[in-house]
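Subject: sequence -> structure tokens, single chain

Hey, anyone have a minute? Need the predicted structure for the following. Not urgent.
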Amino acid sequence: MKIKHILPALLMLMPAMFSQAQTVGIKTNLLSDVGLSPNIGLEFGLAPKWTLDLTGEVNFWDVDSKRWRHWYVQPEARYWFCEKFAGHFLGINAVGGRYDIGNLGNLAINDKVLGTDFSTLKDGRARGWGFGAGIAYGYAWPVAKHWNIEAEIGVGWVWSKYREYPSLDAGKSQASDYKYHNYVGLTKLAVNVEYLF
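Reply:
Had a minute. Here:
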């Protein structure tokens, strides 16, 4: 499904989410911000112990000739053990997006990790898209009347379709045939600063 079909559907759901919401939060993941990947999250209170978190991230530029271009969206249903927006929570999420990553040099891992060979990203690049699902655990610390600090870690599965290129500047004529990959491992790592309305 193309993003032009997803965005109108999300916009149509927004009024329903706000009408049921007891609280709404807006957040940013500081770890992604440090990685020069702007991101935003919206979290809607649905019930005393349930929230819906919608997070998105984008990066369309290169830094020091290293490519880390991508965008993704990650909706997550959260169950809070005490009350929403405070304390321990468990989440179940989906993820989908596109990427164009490569020329990482010494930042590339020189071996396979959980069945994924990252060494091809040292000088070459991979371009494709993927989707998946996962589970997460997190904790939120209320630090002021409207402010929270939140930490979260998640694991899951992502299926990806991509092509490999021998260099950053290689064109389609030099690309490999499409490849498919199942990744299992870390799918979420966040230290969020959140403002609650």
